[in-house]
Specification:
By secondary structure, the chain is α+β, with helices and mostly antiparallel strands. It has two domains: 2-202 and 381-387, 2-Layer Sandwich (Ribosomal Protein S5, domain 2), CATH 3.30.230.10; 207-377, Alpha-Beta Plaits, CATH 3.30.70. Helices cover 42% and strands 21% of the residues. It has eleven helices and 13 strands. The protein has helices spanning 7-17, 92-106, 130-145, 152-167, 174-181, 221-242, 256-260, 266-291, 294-310, 317-328, 354-369; strands at 25-34, 46-47, 49-62, 68-72, 77-81, 114-120, 187-191, 197-200, 207-217, 333-336, 342-350, 374-376, 385-387. The strands form three sheets. A six-stranded mixed beta sheet has the order 5-4-6-3-1-13, with helices on both faces. A four-stranded antiparallel beta sheet has the order 10-11-9-12. The chain has a three-stranded antiparallel beta sheet with strand order 2-7-8, with no helix packed on it. Strand 7 (187-191) and strand 8 (197-200) form a beta hairpin. Helix 2 (92-106) crosses helix 4, helix 3 (130-145) packs across helix 4 and helix 8 runs antiparallel to helix 9 (294-310). The radius of gyration is 21 Å and the shape is globular. The structure holds alpha-D-galactopyranose. Alpha-D-galactopyranose is lined by residues 38-39, 41-42, 129, 171-172, 174-175, 338-339. One of its GO terms (cellular component) is cytosol. This is Galactokinase. Keywords: ATP-binding, Carbohydrate metabolism, Cytoplasm, Galactose metabolism, Kinase, Magnesium, Metal-binding, Nucleotide-binding, Transferase.
Length: 389
Protein backbone atom coordinates (compact mmCIF):
# COMPACT_ATOMS: atom_id res chain seq x y z
CA UNK A 1 0.00 0.00 0.00
CA UNK A 2 2.95 2.30 0.60
CA UNK A 3 3.23 2.62 -3.15
CA UNK A 4 0.03 4.66 -2.96
CA UNK A 5 1.89 7.40 -1.05
CA UNK A 6 2.76 8.25 -4.52
CA UNK A 7 4.09 11.22 -6.32
CA UNK A 8 1.55 10.20 -8.93
CA UNK A 9 -1.42 10.81 -6.61
CA UNK A 10 0.04 14.11 -5.39
CA UNK A 11 0.53 15.22 -8.99
CA UNK A 12 -2.96 14.02 -9.82
CA UNK A 13 -4.33 16.01 -6.88
CA UNK A 14 -2.68 19.22 -8.07
CA UNK A 15 -3.62 18.74 -11.66
CA UNK A 16 -7.31 18.21 -10.71
CA UNK A 17 -7.63 20.81 -7.94
CA UNK A 18 -4.75 23.20 -8.74
CA UNK A 19 -1.81 24.31 -6.59
CA UNK A 20 -2.35 26.45 -3.47
CA UNK A 21 -0.20 27.42 -0.49
CA UNK A 22 -2.22 25.18 1.86
CA UNK A 23 -0.56 21.83 2.65
CA UNK A 24 -2.08 18.57 1.39
CA UNK A 25 -2.35 15.97 4.17
CA UNK A 26 -2.53 12.20 3.73
CA UNK A 27 -4.55 9.79 5.89
CA UNK A 28 -4.89 6.02 5.70
CA UNK A 29 -7.39 3.48 7.08
CA UNK A 30 -7.00 -0.33 7.03
CA UNK A 31 -9.32 -3.19 6.10
CA UNK A 32 -10.44 -5.63 8.78
CA UNK A 33 -10.95 -9.31 9.49
CA UNK A 34 -13.22 -10.69 12.18
CA UNK A 35 -12.06 -13.85 13.95
CA UNK A 36 -15.42 -14.63 15.59
CA UNK A 37 -18.74 -12.96 16.46
CA UNK A 38 -20.47 -12.64 13.08
CA UNK A 39 -23.80 -10.88 12.66
CA UNK A 40 -24.00 -10.07 16.36
CA UNK A 41 -22.66 -6.50 16.40
CA UNK A 42 -26.11 -4.95 15.95
CA UNK A 43 -27.52 -7.22 18.66
CA UNK A 44 -25.24 -6.34 21.56
CA UNK A 45 -22.82 -9.22 20.93
CA UNK A 46 -19.07 -9.59 21.42
CA UNK A 47 -16.83 -9.51 18.34
CA UNK A 48 -13.11 -10.20 17.82
CA UNK A 49 -11.91 -8.15 14.85
CA UNK A 50 -8.43 -6.96 13.79
CA UNK A 51 -7.21 -4.34 11.31
CA UNK A 52 -5.21 -5.69 8.35
CA UNK A 53 -2.81 -4.21 5.83
CA UNK A 54 -5.04 -3.32 2.93
CA UNK A 55 -5.89 0.38 2.92
CA UNK A 56 -7.88 3.35 1.75
CA UNK A 57 -5.86 6.56 1.45
CA UNK A 58 -7.22 10.08 1.38
CA UNK A 59 -5.40 13.29 0.40
CA UNK A 60 -7.18 16.34 1.85
CA UNK A 61 -6.63 20.11 1.59
CA UNK A 62 -8.96 22.90 2.77
CA UNK A 63 -10.06 25.07 -0.17
CA UNK A 64 -11.42 28.19 1.63
CA UNK A 65 -14.82 27.82 -0.06
CA UNK A 66 -18.01 26.04 0.99
CA UNK A 67 -17.60 23.45 -1.79
CA UNK A 68 -16.49 19.85 -1.39
CA UNK A 69 -14.49 18.71 -4.43
CA UNK A 70 -13.81 14.98 -4.54
CA UNK A 71 -11.90 12.69 -6.87
CA UNK A 72 -11.87 8.88 -6.79
CA UNK A 73 -8.85 7.25 -8.46
CA UNK A 74 -10.64 3.88 -8.52
CA UNK A 75 -13.65 5.26 -10.41
CA UNK A 76 -11.67 7.97 -12.22
CA UNK A 77 -14.48 10.38 -11.35
CA UNK A 78 -14.56 13.93 -9.94
CA UNK A 79 -17.63 15.36 -8.21
CA UNK A 80 -18.33 18.66 -6.52
CA UNK A 81 -21.13 19.43 -4.10
CA UNK A 82 -22.35 21.89 -1.49
CA UNK A 83 -24.81 21.82 1.36
CA UNK A 84 -27.55 20.63 1.65
CA UNK A 85 -25.91 17.25 1.11
CA UNK A 86 -28.01 14.61 -0.61
CA UNK A 87 -27.25 11.08 -1.89
CA UNK A 88 -25.86 11.08 -5.44
CA UNK A 89 -26.86 7.98 -7.47
CA UNK A 90 -24.30 8.91 -10.15
CA UNK A 91 -21.38 8.72 -7.71
CA UNK A 92 -22.40 6.34 -4.92
CA UNK A 93 -18.83 6.31 -3.54
CA UNK A 94 -19.17 10.01 -2.68
CA UNK A 95 -22.18 9.27 -0.42
CA UNK A 96 -19.87 7.78 2.21
CA UNK A 97 -18.00 11.09 2.37
CA UNK A 98 -21.12 13.27 2.29
CA UNK A 99 -22.72 11.10 5.00
CA UNK A 100 -19.69 11.63 7.25
CA UNK A 101 -19.80 15.43 6.77
CA UNK A 102 -23.50 15.39 7.73
CA UNK A 103 -22.78 13.39 10.90
CA UNK A 104 -19.85 15.60 11.95
CA UNK A 105 -22.03 18.68 11.50
CA UNK A 106 -24.76 17.08 13.65
CA UNK A 107 -22.18 17.10 16.45
CA UNK A 108 -21.97 20.88 16.11
CA UNK A 109 -18.78 21.23 14.01
CA UNK A 110 -19.13 23.23 10.81
CA UNK A 111 -17.12 21.45 8.09
CA UNK A 112 -15.48 23.99 5.70
CA UNK A 113 -14.96 23.18 2.00
CA UNK A 114 -12.06 20.94 0.96
CA UNK A 115 -10.39 19.18 -1.98
CA UNK A 116 -10.16 15.43 -1.54
CA UNK A 117 -8.61 12.56 -3.48
CA UNK A 118 -9.23 8.94 -2.54
CA UNK A 119 -7.39 5.80 -3.62
CA UNK A 120 -7.18 2.32 -2.16
CA UNK A 121 -6.51 -1.37 -2.57
CA UNK A 122 -9.20 -2.99 -0.38
CA UNK A 123 -11.09 -5.36 -2.69
CA UNK A 124 -14.65 -4.03 -2.74
CA UNK A 125 -17.57 -6.29 -1.82
CA UNK A 126 -15.14 -8.83 -0.37
CA UNK A 127 -16.27 -8.64 3.25
CA UNK A 128 -13.14 -6.70 4.27
CA UNK A 129 -15.00 -3.41 4.93
CA UNK A 130 -13.81 -1.07 2.22
CA UNK A 131 -16.80 1.22 2.86
CA UNK A 132 -16.21 1.44 6.62
CA UNK A 133 -12.56 2.25 5.89
CA UNK A 134 -13.64 5.10 3.62
CA UNK A 135 -16.03 6.47 6.25
CA UNK A 136 -13.47 6.26 9.03
CA UNK A 137 -10.59 7.76 7.05
CA UNK A 138 -12.87 10.62 5.95
CA UNK A 139 -14.04 11.40 9.49
CA UNK A 140 -10.49 11.15 10.83
CA UNK A 141 -9.01 13.33 8.06
CA UNK A 142 -11.68 16.03 8.62
CA UNK A 143 -11.33 16.08 12.40
CA UNK A 144 -7.53 16.25 12.22
CA UNK A 145 -7.45 18.89 9.47
CA UNK A 146 -9.95 21.20 11.16
CA UNK A 147 -8.91 20.31 14.75
CA UNK A 148 -12.31 19.06 15.91
CA UNK A 149 -12.17 17.45 19.38
CA UNK A 150 -13.52 14.04 18.30
CA UNK A 151 -12.15 10.79 19.76
CA UNK A 152 -11.33 7.65 17.76
CA UNK A 153 -14.37 5.93 19.29
CA UNK A 154 -16.58 8.84 18.15
CA UNK A 155 -15.05 8.64 14.67
CA UNK A 156 -16.31 5.03 14.56
CA UNK A 157 -19.84 6.03 15.55
CA UNK A 158 -19.85 8.87 13.00
CA UNK A 159 -18.89 6.35 10.29
CA UNK A 160 -21.58 3.89 11.33
CA UNK A 161 -24.26 6.61 11.40
CA UNK A 162 -23.20 7.84 7.96
CA UNK A 163 -23.70 4.32 6.64
CA UNK A 164 -26.98 3.70 8.50
CA UNK A 165 -28.63 7.05 7.80
CA UNK A 166 -27.11 8.44 4.58
CA UNK A 167 -26.09 5.32 2.64
CA UNK A 168 -28.92 3.19 4.07
CA UNK A 169 -27.17 -0.03 5.18
CA UNK A 170 -28.12 -0.79 8.78
CA UNK A 171 -24.65 -2.13 9.66
CA UNK A 172 -23.43 -2.62 13.21
CA UNK A 173 -20.44 -0.87 14.80
CA UNK A 174 -17.73 -3.55 14.44
CA UNK A 175 -16.07 -2.48 11.19
CA UNK A 176 -15.82 1.24 11.89
CA UNK A 177 -14.69 0.56 15.45
CA UNK A 178 -11.74 -1.72 14.69
CA UNK A 179 -10.69 0.46 11.75
CA UNK A 180 -10.60 3.42 14.17
CA UNK A 181 -8.86 1.85 17.17
CA UNK A 182 -6.87 -1.09 15.69
CA UNK A 183 -3.23 -1.69 16.68
CA UNK A 184 -0.52 -3.62 14.84
CA UNK A 185 -0.33 -7.25 16.06
CA UNK A 186 -3.48 -7.11 18.22
CA UNK A 187 -7.13 -7.92 17.74
CA UNK A 188 -9.76 -6.44 20.05
CA UNK A 189 -12.67 -7.96 21.87
CA UNK A 190 -15.47 -5.45 21.64
CA UNK A 191 -18.72 -5.56 23.56
CA UNK A 192 -21.04 -3.95 21.03
CA UNK A 193 -23.64 -3.23 23.70
CA UNK A 194 -21.41 -1.06 25.92
CA UNK A 195 -18.59 -0.34 23.42
CA UNK A 196 -16.09 -1.45 26.07
CA UNK A 197 -13.11 -3.12 24.44
CA UNK A 198 -9.69 -4.57 25.15
CA UNK A 199 -6.63 -5.46 23.07
CA UNK A 200 -5.47 -9.08 22.77
CA UNK A 201 -2.24 -10.43 21.41
CA UNK A 202 -2.17 -14.10 20.43
CA UNK A 203 0.89 -16.12 19.56
CA UNK A 204 -0.16 -18.41 16.72
CA UNK A 205 3.05 -20.48 16.78
CA UNK A 206 3.07 -22.84 13.76
CA UNK A 207 -0.38 -21.65 12.71
CA UNK A 208 -1.51 -18.71 10.61
CA UNK A 209 -4.63 -16.93 9.47
CA UNK A 210 -5.08 -16.13 5.78
CA UNK A 211 -7.93 -15.10 3.49
CA UNK A 212 -9.47 -16.59 0.37
CA UNK A 213 -11.53 -14.25 -1.80
CA UNK A 214 -14.39 -16.08 -3.54
CA UNK A 215 -14.61 -13.13 -5.96
CA UNK A 216 -18.39 -13.31 -5.68
CA UNK A 217 -20.43 -10.17 -4.98
CA UNK A 218 -24.18 -10.42 -4.71
CA UNK A 219 -26.15 -7.33 -5.59
CA UNK A 220 -28.90 -8.05 -3.04
CA UNK A 221 -26.35 -8.08 -0.23
CA UNK A 222 -27.42 -4.81 1.40
CA UNK A 223 -31.15 -5.46 1.29
CA UNK A 224 -30.65 -9.01 2.62
CA UNK A 225 -28.46 -7.60 5.42
CA UNK A 226 -31.17 -5.15 6.46
CA UNK A 227 -33.74 -7.98 6.33
CA UNK A 228 -31.66 -10.16 8.68
CA UNK A 229 -31.41 -7.27 11.08
CA UNK A 230 -35.17 -6.70 11.12
CA UNK A 231 -35.84 -10.45 11.56
CA UNK A 232 -33.60 -10.38 14.65
CA UNK A 233 -35.41 -7.30 15.96
CA UNK A 234 -38.83 -8.88 15.52
CA UNK A 235 -37.61 -12.10 17.19
CA UNK A 236 -36.48 -10.08 20.22
CA UNK A 237 -39.80 -8.20 20.43
CA UNK A 238 -41.72 -11.51 20.52
CA UNK A 239 -39.35 -12.97 23.13
CA UNK A 240 -39.73 -9.83 25.24
CA UNK A 241 -43.51 -10.22 25.45
CA UNK A 242 -42.90 -13.44 27.47
CA UNK A 243 -39.46 -12.63 28.90
CA UNK A 244 -39.24 -8.83 29.31
CA UNK A 245 -35.85 -8.95 31.05
CA UNK A 246 -33.92 -9.61 27.85
CA UNK A 247 -32.76 -6.33 26.30
CA UNK A 248 -30.67 -7.87 23.50
CA UNK A 249 -31.16 -10.98 21.35
CA UNK A 250 -27.54 -11.93 22.12
CA UNK A 251 -28.42 -12.44 25.83
CA UNK A 252 -31.27 -14.85 25.23
CA UNK A 253 -30.54 -18.18 26.93
CA UNK A 254 -33.89 -19.95 26.77
CA UNK A 255 -34.49 -23.64 26.21
CA UNK A 256 -36.07 -24.82 22.98
CA UNK A 257 -39.33 -25.35 24.84
CA UNK A 258 -39.32 -21.84 26.30
CA UNK A 259 -38.59 -20.41 22.86
CA UNK A 260 -41.51 -22.39 21.42
CA UNK A 261 -43.84 -20.34 23.62
CA UNK A 262 -42.66 -17.15 21.91
CA UNK A 263 -44.27 -18.06 18.56
CA UNK A 264 -41.29 -17.13 16.43
CA UNK A 265 -41.52 -17.70 12.68
CA UNK A 266 -39.15 -20.35 11.35
CA UNK A 267 -36.82 -17.56 10.08
CA UNK A 268 -36.87 -15.81 13.47
CA UNK A 269 -36.02 -19.08 15.29
CA UNK A 270 -33.13 -19.83 12.96
CA UNK A 271 -31.70 -16.30 13.31
CA UNK A 272 -32.01 -16.57 17.11
CA UNK A 273 -30.27 -19.95 17.05
CA UNK A 274 -27.29 -18.52 15.15
CA UNK A 275 -26.96 -15.47 17.40
CA UNK A 276 -27.15 -17.32 20.71
CA UNK A 277 -24.91 -20.20 19.59
CA UNK A 278 -22.35 -17.66 18.30
CA UNK A 279 -22.11 -16.36 21.88
CA UNK A 280 -20.94 -19.80 23.05
CA UNK A 281 -18.49 -20.22 20.14
CA UNK A 282 -17.00 -16.80 20.87
CA UNK A 283 -16.13 -17.89 24.42
CA UNK A 284 -14.50 -21.07 23.05
CA UNK A 285 -12.43 -19.10 20.52
CA UNK A 286 -11.20 -16.52 23.06
CA UNK A 287 -10.07 -19.22 25.51
CA UNK A 288 -8.68 -21.40 22.71
CA UNK A 289 -6.57 -18.54 21.31
CA UNK A 290 -5.30 -17.67 24.79
CA UNK A 291 -4.34 -21.26 25.65
CA UNK A 292 -3.03 -22.12 22.14
CA UNK A 293 -5.73 -24.74 21.53
CA UNK A 294 -6.04 -24.02 17.80
CA UNK A 295 -7.88 -27.27 17.05
CA UNK A 296 -10.73 -26.09 19.25
CA UNK A 297 -10.61 -22.59 17.70
CA UNK A 298 -10.68 -24.07 14.19
CA UNK A 299 -13.62 -26.31 14.95
CA UNK A 300 -15.59 -23.32 16.31
CA UNK A 301 -14.83 -21.40 13.10
CA UNK A 302 -16.28 -24.24 10.99
CA UNK A 303 -19.37 -24.35 13.21
CA UNK A 304 -19.80 -20.60 12.80
CA UNK A 305 -19.65 -20.98 9.05
CA UNK A 306 -22.38 -23.61 8.92
CA UNK A 307 -24.49 -21.66 11.38
CA UNK A 308 -24.17 -18.55 9.14
CA UNK A 309 -25.01 -20.71 6.15
CA UNK A 310 -27.91 -22.83 7.46
CA UNK A 311 -29.43 -20.72 10.25
CA UNK A 312 -28.56 -17.12 9.43
CA UNK A 313 -28.65 -17.84 5.67
CA UNK A 314 -26.03 -15.29 4.61
CA UNK A 315 -23.63 -17.60 2.78
CA UNK A 316 -23.76 -18.68 -0.87
CA UNK A 317 -22.84 -21.80 -2.88
CA UNK A 318 -19.34 -20.48 -3.65
CA UNK A 319 -18.25 -19.76 -0.05
CA UNK A 320 -19.94 -22.97 1.13
CA UNK A 321 -17.93 -24.87 -1.47
CA UNK A 322 -14.68 -23.25 -0.30
CA UNK A 323 -15.30 -24.04 3.38
CA UNK A 324 -16.50 -27.56 2.63
CA UNK A 325 -13.43 -28.26 0.48
CA UNK A 326 -11.11 -26.83 3.13
CA UNK A 327 -12.74 -29.05 5.74
CA UNK A 328 -12.20 -32.09 3.49
CA UNK A 329 -8.59 -31.07 2.89
CA UNK A 330 -7.97 -31.17 6.66
CA UNK A 331 -7.55 -27.44 7.28
CA UNK A 332 -7.78 -26.46 10.98
CA UNK A 333 -10.68 -24.00 10.62
CA UNK A 334 -12.41 -21.70 8.14
CA UNK A 335 -15.49 -19.56 7.74
CA UNK A 336 -16.99 -16.78 5.68
CA UNK A 337 -16.44 -13.35 7.20
CA UNK A 338 -18.35 -10.08 7.17
CA UNK A 339 -21.86 -9.50 5.90
CA UNK A 340 -21.83 -12.56 3.61
CA UNK A 341 -23.36 -13.38 0.20
CA UNK A 342 -19.88 -13.88 -1.22
CA UNK A 343 -16.65 -12.17 -0.25
CA UNK A 344 -13.82 -13.69 1.75
CA UNK A 345 -13.27 -16.84 3.79
CA UNK A 346 -10.93 -16.62 6.78
CA UNK A 347 -8.72 -19.70 7.21
CA UNK A 348 -6.78 -20.88 10.26
CA UNK A 349 -4.23 -23.57 9.49
CA UNK A 350 -0.72 -24.90 10.00
CA UNK A 351 1.74 -22.69 8.11
CA UNK A 352 3.23 -25.51 6.06
CA UNK A 353 -0.14 -26.53 4.56
CA UNK A 354 -0.63 -23.35 2.59
CA UNK A 355 0.93 -24.13 -0.80
CA UNK A 356 -0.80 -27.52 -1.05
CA UNK A 357 -4.23 -26.07 -0.27
CA UNK A 358 -3.83 -23.11 -2.62
CA UNK A 359 -3.05 -25.26 -5.63
CA UNK A 360 -5.82 -27.84 -5.14
CA UNK A 361 -8.55 -25.36 -4.29
CA UNK A 362 -7.82 -22.92 -7.10
CA UNK A 363 -8.20 -25.76 -9.56
CA UNK A 364 -11.42 -27.25 -8.20
CA UNK A 365 -13.06 -23.82 -7.76
CA UNK A 366 -12.21 -22.83 -11.30
CA UNK A 367 -13.67 -26.09 -12.56
CA UNK A 368 -16.88 -25.77 -10.57
CA UNK A 369 -17.65 -22.06 -10.85
CA UNK A 370 -15.45 -20.93 -13.72
CA UNK A 371 -14.03 -18.30 -11.39
CA UNK A 372 -10.54 -17.55 -10.05
CA UNK A 373 -9.78 -17.57 -6.33
CA UNK A 374 -7.43 -15.07 -4.68
CA UNK A 375 -5.41 -15.98 -1.61
CA UNK A 376 -4.25 -13.17 0.70
CA UNK A 377 -1.64 -13.44 3.41
CA UNK A 378 -1.91 -10.37 5.64
CA UNK A 379 -0.49 -8.62 8.68
CA UNK A 380 -2.46 -7.27 11.62
CA UNK A 381 -1.92 -3.53 11.37
CA UNK A 382 -2.71 -0.14 12.87
CA UNK A 383 -6.05 1.61 12.73
CA UNK A 384 -6.62 4.89 10.90
CA UNK A 385 -3.67 7.31 10.96
CA UNK A 386 -1.97 10.21 9.25
CA UNK A 387 0.93 9.42 6.89
CA UNK A 388 3.38 12.31 6.96
CA UNK A 389 4.40 13.46 3.49
C1 LIG B 1 -20.86 -6.24 7.91
C2 LIG B 1 -21.33 -5.10 8.80
C3 LIG B 1 -20.89 -5.31 10.25
C4 LIG B 1 -21.26 -6.70 10.74
C5 LIG B 1 -20.85 -7.77 9.75
C6 LIG B 1 -21.37 -9.13 10.14
O1 LIG B 1 -19.47 -6.24 7.82
O2 LIG B 1 -20.83 -3.87 8.34
O3 LIG B 1 -21.42 -4.31 11.06
O4 LIG B 1 -22.63 -6.77 11.03
O5 LIG B 1 -21.31 -7.48 8.43
O6 LIG B 1 -20.83 -9.50 11.35
Amino acid sequence: MDSLISKENLNRFESIFGKTTQPIRLFQAPARINIIGEHVDYLGGTVLPAAINFAVQVYLRPNNTSNYKLHSVTYNQTVEFQKPLLPNPKAAWADYIAGVIVEIEKKGHLVPGFDFLVDGNIPQGSGLSSSAALEVVTAFAIKETFSFPISREEVAVIGQKAENLFVGTKCGIMDQFIISVGKANDCISLNTDTLNYSYHHFDLGNYEFYLINSNVKHSLKDSAYNKRRSECESALLKIQTKYPNFTQLYEVNLSEEELNHCHLTSEESKRTKHVTSERERTKIVITGLESGNFIEVGSALFHTHWSLSKDFEVSCPETDFIVDSLQNLGVTGARMIGGGFGGCVLVLDKKDHFSKIEEVLKKSYQQKFNLALDFYKFQISDGVKEIYI
